[in-house]
Amino acid sequence: MDHDKTPVLEAIDQYRRGEYYTFALPGHRFGRGLDNRTAAVLSRSTFESDVIMAKQAVSEAEELMADAVGAKQAVFATCGSSISIHVAILTVTGPGRKILVDRNVHKSVVASLILAGVQPVWLRPSWDHERQIAHPAPAADVEAALERDRDIAAVLIITPTEYGTGADVRGVAEICHRRNLPLIVDEAWGAHFPFHPDVPTAAVQAGADLVVQSLHKADGGLCQASMILVGGDRVDTVDLRLRLDLITTTSPSALLYGSIDGFRRRMVLEGRQLLDEALSRVRDLRARVSKLPHLSVMDESINGHDGVAEWDPLKLSVDVSALGISGYQAKDWMQEKRRLTVQLGDARRVVCSLTYSDDDVSFARLGDAFEALATDPPKADRPEPRVPELERLNLEQAMPPRDAFFAETEQVADPAGRISAEMISPYPPGVPAVLPGERFTEEVAGYLRAGLAAGMKLPDASDPELKTFRVVRE
Q: Model-level pTM?
């Protein structure tokens, strides 16, 4: 196939060059009705490219993408990977059925379970006590779970994690396929994986049946640009598109489609070189930061830890706890003192998402910031986070998520022993610490309250101050 083509971008360009006028949507008339303030900030050309008719070229662009990454089909989505996850789950399962799911999934997966009325069977993560983080569950745990419960109809795993640790997708796929079960992989951070051998194996090439990717996370797409890749023949692709049609917008953004289209072209033509250069810069930066006092940097030695089959070197995870501060404070310091926004701050570390778009100047700036932080760290300015023994974060699923979410509820100050009716998700990464149907414990309530005081972001809590929690009324 001719990967120099960009069907969506060409359709937008053709419309803009033609003497077309529309009495249909969009009502801004391709920027004609724009005020100067909006044009100054968002650019008039953005609105000139908002050509909804360009969606007619999406089918060809999807065929090119599928060919580029080795998928049976590619399905573009413009409402973010949250919607793509909903579509994937609604396609392979439905009300009353069971699905084996990584417990450290993004909150969108839990929302999908609620929407679909699906009963989760939780696959517990591999807890890393040394680093106080969760890694993917080993393939053997997947096999054991499927042996215990023969009613499971599908499997969903997330890889890589926000920290860059990747699951054994090939091993999990083989286990699922021996039972003729479809495997969904939330590979939000991995749209570039098919284009270089030194990053984790692309899930669709490792045997996954449905793969969800976010084009904006580590790649060249606009926010909300997402796609679902289909591998093999276990998923009915007609059903897939019907489910997408059920919940997606009928007015998709050509800007998002065009960004996916342009990303594919660039990766096929230049991706190997771009990622070569990015990986080289990352190696140099990781070596520099690793030499700084009191900072500990995750590296390739993480490979082989329980559940870690692969590792994404484009994630820079730096433990700052030896400086006497939390990752929450370090993240805020980077923002306030160095005007640098990092991907994640947690109880112990900051994580930077590095991409081929970062150049030598930006890498040097980040290295300088870590050097300044290590040389003259700020004094602790907030309470310390309290992370319980990690297994204490494994909560009992006392009710199905859907039943708990739609139950009669009340707000209580002491939730211990009560069944949660809400999701509370430290963000990023957006993995719920507690979700509907799980039974609160004192440890989890204390962990969340201490985390909030230390700087943890909890955008979905019913009470943003955590004075009360939403529980199922008894």
A: 0.96
